[in-house]
């Protein structure tokens, strides 16, 4: 079980708190080491800044997309909002907190499910705006382009936090981490980049991924995955880690 276990929280600094607090409820010791940095995109399509509300649908794929979208539009209040789709519950809640009506949330919180849910609602040549980060997968655009006019709007950028590398190497080499958590493919990529070429043995750590996309990224990079919940949320991931360790008697 998680009691007393040291758990590495790799997500961006501003978002680490929610995961750390959940871990603490289980008696775990969160070790926050952000492996990525997230910031507003340096170059933002100025034309979209004044046209976003003219689209038929606007799709948000993450809480970060919501945050930086609203930073960009600032006080702008359009006469009407397009229909709004959110890829998951947390993204939807971030919108609802800003009094935005969310018209569509798929049953599974991945792009593929959103595509299936959105397709029947799109009229021919519907105009869809995808609010996303620079590293977002192209799944939505690729699968919707056959039936809709799709525009990407990159509102934030994710980069590796190179400064975290020495501390990460030290924690792993000294076996001071029991569990590693990944909440996005970008955290996995940054982790793999940091440990590449180093004398690192991961056999002693439990590795957890929040969902199937993140898990596949880890497996593709040769990182084993022990935990991946059926519901792609922080709470579900932490509960699954707890159950996994309990079954193993750790």
UniProtKB/TrEMBL annotation:
Principal EC category: lyase
Superkingdom in the source lineage: Bacteria
Residue ranges constituting the Tetrapyrrole biosynthesis uroporphyrinogen III synthase domain according to the UniProt record: 18-239
Annotated keywords: Lyase, Porphyrin biosynthesis
Single annotated GO MF: uroporphyrinogen-III synthase activity
Gene3D superfamilies: 3.40.50.10090
Pathway annotation: Porphyrin-containing compound metabolism; protoporphyrin-IX biosynthesis; coproporphyrinogen-III from 5-aminolevulinate: step 3/4
Pfam families membership: HEM4
GO BP: any one term: protoporphyrinogen IX biosynthetic process
EC number of the protein: 4.2.1.75
Catalytic activity: hydroxymethylbilane = uroporphyrinogen III + H2O
InterPro entries: 4pyrrol_syn_uPrphyn_synt_sf, 4pyrrol_synth_uPrphyn_synth, UROS/Hem4
Physiological role: Catalyzes cyclization of the linear tetrapyrrole, hydroxymethylbilane, to the macrocyclic uroporphyrinogen III.
Sequence similarity: Belongs to the uroporphyrinogen-III synthase family.
PANTHER family from the UniProt entry: UROPORPHYRINOGEN-III SYNTHASE, CHLOROPLASTIC
Protein name per Swiss-Prot or TrEMBL: Uroporphyrinogen-III synthase
């Amino acid at each position: 079980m998680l009691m007393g276990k040291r758990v590495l929280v790799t997500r961006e600094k501003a978002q680490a708190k929610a995961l750390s607090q959940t871990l603490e409820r289980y008696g775990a010791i969160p070790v926050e080491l952000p492996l990525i940095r997230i910031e507003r995109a340096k170059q933002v399509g100025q034309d979209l800044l004044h046209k976003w509300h003219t689209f038929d649908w606007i799709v948000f794929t993450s809480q970060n997309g919501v945050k930086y979208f609203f930073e960009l539009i600032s006080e702008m209040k359009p006469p009407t909002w397009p229909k709004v789709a959110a890829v998951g519950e947390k993204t939807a809640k971030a919108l609802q907190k800003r009094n935005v009506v969310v018209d569509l949330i798929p049953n599974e919180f991945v792009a593929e499910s959103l595509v299936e849910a959105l397709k029947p609602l799109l009229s021919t040549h519907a105009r869809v705006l995808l609010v996303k980060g620079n590293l977002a997968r192209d799944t939505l655009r690729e699968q919707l382009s056959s039936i809709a006019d799709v525009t990407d709007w990159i509102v934030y950028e994710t980069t590796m936090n190179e400064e975290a590398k020495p501390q990460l190497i030290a924690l792993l080499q000294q076996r001071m981490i029991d569990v590693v958590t990944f909440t996005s493919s970008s955290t996995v990529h940054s982790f793999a980049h940091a440990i590449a070429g180093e004398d690192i043995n991961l056999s002693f750590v439990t590795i957890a991924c929040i969902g199937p996309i993140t898990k596949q990224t880890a497996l593709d990079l040769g990182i084993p995955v022990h935990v991946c919940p059926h519901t792609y949320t922080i709470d579900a991931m932490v509960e699954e880690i707890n159950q996994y360790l309990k079954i193993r008697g750790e």
